[in-house]
Amino acid sequence: MLGPSGIGLPDMSQPAGASIMALRFGRMLMGLFVGAALSASGVVFQALLRNPLAEPYVLGVSGGAGLGATVSILAGTSLAMPLSLPVTAFVSAVLTLMTVYGIASQGSGGSPSVYSLILSGVIVSAICSSLIMFLVSTASVEGLHNVIWWMLGNLQPVSLQQQLFSSSLVLCGIAGIWLLASRFNAMTLGREMAHYQGINAGAVILAGLLLATLLAATAVSMAGMIGFVGLIVPHVMRAMFGPDHRRLVPLASLGGGAFLVLCDALARTVLAPVEIPVGVVTALAGGPFFLLILQRRMKQAWN
Amino acid sequence: MIEQRSAESPALAFREVSSGYRGREVLHGVSFSIAEGEFVSLIGPNGCGKSTLLKTAAALVRPSSGSVLVYGRDVRQLRHAERASLVGVVPQKLESPMSFSVGELVMNGRTSAMGLFGRPGPEDEDIVERAMIYTDVLDLRDRYFMELSGGEQQRVALAMVLAQEPRIVMLDESIAHLDINHRQEVLQILMNLNRDRQMTVVLVSHDLTLSAQISDRLLLLHAGRLAASGTPGEVLRPELLSRIYQCDLQVHKDPWNGELQVTGDLSLLRHRKPQGKRVHVIAGGGSGIELYRRLLLEGYSVSTGVLNRLDSDAEAARALDLEVVLEQPFSAVSEARCRDASTLVESSVAVVVAEVPFGSGNLINLSLAEESLRQGKPVFLAAGTGSRDYTEGLAAERKTDELVARGARIWSSVHELIPLLQQSLQ
Questions:
Q1: Distance, CA of A66 to CA of B117 (rounded, Å)
Q2: Is this prediction's pTM over 0.80?
Q3: Which of B19, B70, B98 to mutate to test the interface with A (most CBs of A within 10 A)?
Q4: Chain A residues touching residue B108 (CB < 8 angstroms)
Q5: What is the pLDDT along chain B (426 residues), one digit of tens a residue?
Q6: In chain A, is it the N or the C terminus that has fewer CB atoms within a 10 Å radius of its CB?
Q7: Which architecture characterizes domain A15-223+230-300 according to CATH?
Q8: Residues of chain A by 3-state class (helix, strand, coil), percent to 5
């Protein structure tokens, strides 16, 4: 993981070795935070929507963040002000979430059903990706390269300032979600039952969705559109350690981080010196492995 | 402290509560109160608002007017955790899509009491264990909830609600779908809680006999209003129930233990022969469908007309294979079709006029009723023609008044119509 162009530790006595080490250490941290953020966000969406297909992409959150980030990259502001990328990503993700939530609540007395949430999320998500495609198709060659490269997903360390900012956001988000863990347990029984149990269901849904959006948007702004982690890691951790969110939130965060770091190591080394986009590896390498686990232990995750 | 409060105020009180969902009010000004330690059953036909009443009592649905008081305090002003420590609700069916074990699920009952930063302490463990012992699910502790049988699931749901340590437990038809042995078991748990711990129980139920057996008091809800409240003997009166449930119901006293039993008279039905008599129905616009159904159920054969093609009654008549006279869609009933219909009236024993709106196009149908009276056969008119009269100069209302003067009778519900019809045909 921290090895030289091949595998193993670089020669730390030489300045080149030390800087390779620093570069790779930074990249590992990126992987940890991005993976943890995506996975924790998936845990929340799956709990609140009570649906195994839920993930950051489903409610259009990643799509919205991606759209914001694309605009920011193409407009060149991301180069001028390093923090503008995560901020635009988060703002546009929250706007997307509010749109989805607003559409889904129409005519249902202010509390949207899961199905209308998912449906309007999928639609808004599709609109966002069309807009991204449109922007990409009209962009200059250089902008096009930047956006495409970013969209494929890569863990190239961003500026130190953005790293500090983003990783503290991720830590805060995960801490907040962990705090709500026992409420998420109750929410899996449905909004009504959670209400009967003395839980402010509306507030938990709102706080949960906001925190999960924060995490997903931060991850997107750091490393682009990396799929699969937010969907599958929560499932596997649930299958291995049970659905109690007080355990699941920290375990899924750690698991997501570790998984992404491993995938990135593979992405760098398998075809070295050519680097494969990490988003490709997550699904290609992770998919079969996780299918195997799920097939054996699905019963311990979902009914 | 609870004893003090209960001395002053009832456990649960509704004061002129109207509530419902956006654009649809379900409860209309319901008032009642339930004392601490009472065992009350909430009964009423489907759609009368029983579940809405429960949701309103648990502050899930906001009343549009009036107030719900729990131990004298407005339930909407209680904090969520506080409300859960007073009122627990067992849903019709508990669904847990994720594979929680029974123990984990019951622990959910403690969540609101623990607060945001709290972790379950030994006291919480004790409460959960007690709830599981009481409902006899302790040995299921490590099983997955969703692989349990229906009765076991219901007991686990009850355990989870008991772990809230509420003073009032409300059950939303939670035992309706259980096998008789499981039902007895859950009921026994409830009655023990009620007796030993003075827990107030509100049971939504559609089993009238069962409700009478186990309850101190029955609340009968009908169309969003409280129709009756009192001891089983006071509420389970055959004439009241028959009117509200729109069918013939008998109330017997069990000769051995004096308990009330409510039965529909199916034995009579089983021996009922086809009447061999035909009734002609004047309907339109969907007003006839319920009449056709009930008349056929009572063993009459039915003819109807004149109806316009594509009218929902015409579709129903075709589906039910009734004899029917049809006119072209959206056109006035012609003399010729009316003559066809009068041959049907001739071979019928009575004419029933449904709650059909009258206009210039179908006013002529009333002449069929006139024809029937002339032949000495009874005519039954739906009440309130005036409110459905769109003819010029209220011709239909004048016509019906005339028919009443000549001996036609008025009916206001199908349930009332059937005995009228039977009497006059004997």
A1: 34
A2: no
A3: B98
A4: 182, 185-186, 189, 197
A5: 444 444 568 999 999 999 988 778 899 999 999 999 999 999 998 888 998 999 999 999 989 999 999 999 999 999 999 999 999 999 988 888 888 999 999 999 998 888 777 778 889 999 999 999 988 899 999 999 988 988 889 999 999 999 999 999 999 887 777 788 888 888 888 999 999 889 999 999 888 888 888 899 999 999 899 999 999 888 988 888 888 887 778 888 877 777 888 877 665 555 566 778 899 999 998 899 989 988 888 888 899 989 999 999 998 888 888 899 999 998 899 999 999 999 999 999 999 999 999 998 899 999 999 999 999 999 999 998 888 889 888 889 999 999 999 999 999 888 888 888 888 887
A6: C
A7: Orthogonal Bundle (1.10)
A8: 75, 0, 25
Architecture of domain B2-237: 3-Layer(aba) Sandwich (3.40)
User: Nearest-CA neighbor of B200 among B95, B312, B288, B70?
Assistant: B70
Distance CA A39, CA B307 (A): 64
- Chain B hits for A196, CB-CB cut-off 8 Å, are 58, 60, 84, 87-89, 91, 161
DSSP alpha helices (H): ranges in B246-283? 266-270
Please answer yes or no on whether A188 and B96 come within 8 Å at the CB atom: yes
Q: In a 10 Å sphere around its CB, with 0-12 CB exposed, 13-18 middle and 19+ buried, how is residue B331 labelled?
A: exposed
Rounded distance between C-alpha atoms, residue A256 and residue A286, angstroms: 11
Domain coordinates in residue numbering, chain A: 15-223+230-300
The contacts of residue A271 (CB under 8 Å, 6+ apart) are none
Chain B residues within an 8 Å CB radius of A47: 98
Domain B272-425 has CATH 3.40.50.450: yes
Q: How far apart are CA B41 and CA B38, in angstroms?
A: 10
Write down the ipTM of this complex: 0.83
- Shortest distance, CA B187 to any CA of chain A (angstroms): 21
- Chain A with chain B: Cβ pairs closer than 8 A: 97
Give chain B positions within 8 Å (CB) of A49. none
Pinpoint the residues of chain B covered by CATH 3.40.50.450.
272-425
Pairing type for strands B39-43 and B63-70 reads: unpaired
Non-local CB neighbours of B406 within 8 Å, separated by 6+ positions: B370, B373
State which amino acid sits at residue A88: T
